[in-house]
Batch of 2 targets.
Target 1
Amino acid sequence: MRYLPLTPADRSSMLETVGASSVDELFRDVPEAARLSGPIEGLPMHASEMAVERHLGKLAAKNLDAGSAPFFLGAGAYRHHVPASVDHLIQRGEFLTAYTPYQPEIAQGTLQVLFEFQTQVARMFGTDVANASMYDGSTACWEAILMAARVTRKGKAVLSGGLHPHYGEVVRTMAKFTKDEIVSLAPELTAETDDAAVIAAIDETTSSVVVQYPDIMGRIPDLEAIAEAAHAAKALLIVVVTEPVALGLLEAPGNLGADVVVGEGQSLGVGLQFGGPYLGLFGCREKFVRQMPGRLCGETVDAEGKRGFVLTLSTREQHIRREKATSNICTNSGLCALAFSIHMSLLGGEGLEQLAAINHDRTQALVERLTQIPGVSLLSDAYFNEVTLVLPRDARDVVRELADKGILGGVSLGRLFPEQAELHKGLLVTATETVTLDDIEEFATGLAAVLEGVAA
Amino acid sequence: MSGVNTAGWRPSMNEVALGDMAPATQSGDRALMLEEALIFELGCEGQTGVDIEAPSKAVSPALSKFRRKAAPALPGLSEPETVRHYTRLSRQNYGIDLGPFPLGSCTMKHNPRLNEKMARLPGFADVHPLQPQKTVEGALEVIEQLADWLMKLTGMASVAMSPKAGAHGELCGLLCIRAALDARGESREIVLVPESAHGTNPATAAFAGFKVQAIPATPEGRVDLEALKEKLGPDVAGVMITNPNTCGLFEPDLKEIADAVHAVGGYVYCDGANFNAIVGRVRPGDLGVDAMHINLHKTFSTPHGGGGPGAGPVVLSEALAPYAPLPFVTRGEEGEVHLVEEENRGEGHERAFGRMVAFHGQMGMFTRALAYILSHGADGLKQVSEDAVLNANYILRSLEDVLEAPFGKSGPCMHEALFSDAGLPDGISTLDIAKGLIDEGFHPMTVYFPLVVKGAMLIEPTETESKQGLDRFIASMRNLAQRAQEQDESLHTAPHFAPRRRLDETRAARKPVLVWKGDEEA
């Protein structure tokens, strides 16, 4: 077996050292009835590298990958070009095969990366500080709501109808068990975001207000107005960013009054990967630092006075505080944070702005072309790289029919909001820098054909 | 002892030989020992390492009012600068690729590169989680095949694949228990957790809204069965047991514990962090377990990446299976793979307790874990646990004459060997031994955990280490134990040869500096 270095001779000589006649003796604490004598039945035996490649290669080939089709999906996971150096560098064994940096003297590589990552995230978000990552955007969102409850000592969160429905589901699932109160506003197929409804839902018992920016339908809420209303009620404004590239063009939420900014960092460096592993981002005001969830890396000096980095404020964390910890999170998304940070280092602030500009440009071209098709209209003209189109019929069928033509034509609002029939003609489409004008033309032709004869 | 590293070279050896003669360098670097500045000190704003096409038209007027006043104040680096920055930083890290990483309870085993190659196939790496189902059947098939292996290896009825890491899996298991209790109309509040448990166990129970009660350990390092039984009653929702436990010992009473817990209407959660000790040899389902998470980044070799990503699928008993969260992947009667989401939860999974993550969980880790499992097969996985246990016992017996092994007398250990600082002279601590091990070129063991043993040193070699490698490690440990007995002062100031000396953690926590502010200070 290629991964196991012990030889049969090693095993017998080691058993002798150990004083056991067989390896079975080492398992003597396992009750007899639970000890299996041979390999578990009904499962295959070991396989060569070539055989495993063949098996998995066949499964991979059954999928239609985004690079092999005109591709316009977003809804919280975006396809961006990842520079070749990113994937090369994250595969350096010293990064890939390191553990959480509990021994800082021999983990300065990881720790310095985390310090740089925290700084990059804080500057993108316009927050004072950021942590070393969470699992993904949805869990970061729930952790932000919990933190706001600790900070404000209140327990009611108001969720905008523009929040990603999966994030809303995660929050409602968790709140059911923790007994936090969640007010979820219904999503509406309107040109405007639901700022007014969000503001109207805030009262003195509200601990946090959760608003996505840009929202799930691609629209952009007025954060300043919501922040003002939240702060008047001594509630925190939590802003969720599922497409961080947007922050190359849009004002940073922290500069518009957000107290906590969380998000999904997958867009930079990580790739689509069918939904995971992704990267939860978490930034907030400095005064909440001791209430934050997750790991934090801080600067310090070593015994010779040289600058170095360590994991810090661990008294918030489960391995020290146990049931009184701010969160149960342990392993987070270290390697994805590295990928994000490398991609961000390559881009720099100006590169991010240029990347955002070309995303917006491509989406403008997409909107212009698709709205020429009879029956297709644009929901809102304030958008970044994702828009909702209103179609003459259920977009779920349209997406399936487009897939039959080899076109990955967006995400139907019906898939995201199965219970809101009034949204089902909505189709969410995204164009990033990876989309070509030819892709747009192919999409438009396909969509026109699918819709032919049903135009209103 | 054969194979001991007598000719090991390390970058700063010249300095030791030269003593005060070692010259200072102008750069601060020393040959291959390279310092590296922060990107904010290296890069300049306006520089970029990515060529991006210019837009053909202006930003739309509707977007203009939301525009940033200035680009984020982040420097960019050209590609060669970027590659050097991260390559230089990587050299300040220790990884399993460099040598033994015997962190107890963390299972740092070899990460096969085939796994990386498979996860990068475009059919897995470049598919969107919301693509129409018929365009991602192969990806769903990977999830289902891995799920099938996990159920068969554990002897359990079902598995929830979406949890993102071990602690998230614990949460999933406890929420299934909560949902099952709710369905019975019972609101039990107490979860029993042994003192020796990972910190995530009590933290998770609290996070899920339960009250935690601790169960003491026996002098033999096991769960105190009698103490546990005394606490059982109608308020107890369940117990969280780690097996093998964090002392590296199998809990022989698990079945009896499970029967007692079931008799009062509770459920048994098993922390599967240490599954590597028994994979392919023992099925937790045979011991009465209702839920157990499996850290794919431990037992099934997906890389830890300096702190994640992990993946924590949770296997479930018949009693808890109906409550597994969405999305949920099953196999239909005709063999087809079936994805259940909110849209179609009525199709056989209507009791799901909700959703824990956006999308499907850690797909990239599923592919890697499946590649690992297929490579080993049922026979190879059995050999994995046997070699892991043999390696740990070899360390236990090779060091117990020089280091106190608190449970060494009671019999063999499982996959990790536990020592303590009890036999060390006053003034020499577990931390000193750990830092001394760094100078010897090894990553230290887990220290000061489990909490039930004072000055604990928990060594988990895994099946990855060869006998030669173990002999080198043992020789270094014996040498350190001897230096400790001789009150070698230099142990207090170890490490001497690492990129940094001991770091001031108190200073870091007192006035936290969590982001770079160098450009604001001037």
Target 2
Amino acid sequence: MLREIRPAIVLLLLLTAVTGLAYPLAITAIAGAIFPSQAQGSLIEKDGKVIGSALIGQEFKEDKYFHGRLSATVAPDPNDSSKTVPAPYNAANSGGSNLGPTSKALNDRIKEDVEKLKAENPSQPVPIDLVTTSGSGLDPDISPDAALFQVPRVAKARNLREAQVREIVEANTKGRFVGVLGEPRVNVLALNLALDAAAK
Amino acid sequence: MTAIGWFQIILFCAVIVALVKPLGWYMTRVFNGEATFLSPVLRPVERGFYWISGVDEGREQHWLTYTVSMLLFHVGGFLIIYGVMRLQAVLPFNPAEQAAVAQDLSFNTAVSFLTNTNWQNYGGESTLSYLVQMVGLTHQNFLSAATGIVLAVALIRGFARASMRTIGNFWVDVTRCTLYILLPICIVYSLFLVSQGMPQTLGPYVDATTLEGAKQTIAVGPVASQVAIKMLGTNGGGFFNANAAHPFENPTALSNFVQMLSIFVIGAALTNVFGRMVGNQRQGWAILAVMGVLFIAGVSICYWSEANGTTALQALGLTGGNMEGKEVRFGIVASSLFAVITTAASCGAVNAMHDSFTALGGMIPLINMQLGEIIVGGVGAGLYGMLLFVVLAIFVAGLMVGRTPEYVGKKIEAREVKMAMLAILVLPLMYLGWTAVAVVFPPAVASMANAGPHGFTEVLYAYTSSTGNNGSAFAGLTGNTFFYNLTLASAMFVGRFFMIIPAMAIAGSLAQKKSVPPSAGTFPTTGGLFVGLVVGVILIIGGLTFFPALALGPIVEHLAMNANTLF
């Protein structure tokens, strides 16, 4: 048995060096060379400043922007570090609500949001993804239905015709991968950037 | 449920079945020590490793030596992870200036990665430095995966060999597995993931100013290199807290599909390695068929339940299923499929929050883990877990006809059956035992995030997941407390090693036996009758063990949900 001790130490160190250092560092170098934008986090810059990542959702509250999904992410409470406070779209601490199907808190929240949205647009059924939190709290997408649902509000806030806004939504709607995988979706940040660009 | 949803499920199964044979062929060559197309490059490296570490390639080990080597290897691995976590504040690659990780959390995380569980009591981006992610976690992802695979191969050798005292050399197997199988696939795979949008950088977190003028700090890091092995090695520990639900850890529907494939592919191919090594590939296909039956049943129930949503949602006129805790780019079907795959294998990565699944939708992952993660299973662990059930099924069949049972030419006798029973019984002892303790211990009860039966399910899920070395969670439970850090670690430890050691004992005892040629009285183990028998034994043992616990959790919650009772 004693002769197994040397490989246990030496082989472990060798394999650690290969898989824990050489491999990730080599991939970092190669990825940085072939896919520089993705490797950095698909960042979007405007006027030389980073305004976000194409893959990470951000919070929109103003009427003139399309809103993303609800986010359950939190941040440490500035007054008491042992507690947390809600901080939607906190991209340094991802997470979901973790509320179960029979949770009163969850069902009350959904009920309240459904009523708010019904008041905003009584003509369409409320899309489920607008009243539920995403798994990561950073979902960059909404369903095409959820985007179309918000068209009247956005058009009114921007003094645009609804048809015009709807066109921009459709131009930013992505289908399933090769028609099969995933779900159709609209990237909220891309959509809002397109709206701002159209306004100019 | 939609036609395109079912098509995604069928497509997944078809691709896995298509990959089983070629990968099984390649892996068999690697473990038989034969040359492969990578040998011209890797063989010199491999020989160099043996030379430096004093390993004699030609010397094989008895099962006890093999097991002790594995344990020694793990002690070293534990020290490395624990050390870098405690010292991360003074070590390099720490741009976010994370402080040293607490003792109990470091202990829990070290055990967790060592045992291939990857339970996340840590929050990746908010707790760990890049060095810990690479040297601690990425490296251990490789080694715990390699260990699982080689143990399964050692057990296969036990079945395949006759009248031999040895079952291979642990050091050679681990080195070859890492160099020839895991590393080459991961290099290609991680570059693919970067192309889909997964970050791979050592730079600091990015500060952005959003369109509405708010500040957003975006966590990045060397994500792709870790996620590749996290999936391929069925480890599942996330780079980020939200794991594969995080858009950086799973950017597109395509990355999601490939991640699901990579969870299953090695485990599925090992059934083919088994068939090849025992000299009849149909033996491997029969085992894969058992896994397939249980898998399809689980996926169907989970998808149906999630697509239906809850009674409360339907009452509000909301259609489109239960989207709480799910991401739009995956939707209902890819989230349900992922949940079943990750718990059928012992991966534990999640692309949706299992805690927010419907009662029955969340019960399927729980059952998958309680059955011992034998549906494809963790790399290696799934196969040896399944072979334990096969031993039992064969024993039961033997009892029915009053004949000494045989499997692939080996007589299954008292010692094998005792060892199999030990491994199978120790799992429920851990997850039922600790759950019972936790629900009567007030500080442990305080960790539950949901009231009513769902809170109970959170605790049961936590111990089931850690005993099964899965690592997925009903994540509402606050697991990072002294009580849970220690008890969950003990469940992970017992769940891993009290499964491995009996399995290795069986390997050693089988390898010594003579091979019995099949006769007219031999029970054929390649047909539908055998598949049905094994499925039956699994469900009976499973059902008897954990049905009462499920009745207190998800089943009662489902009834409450239908009666519109909220907690």
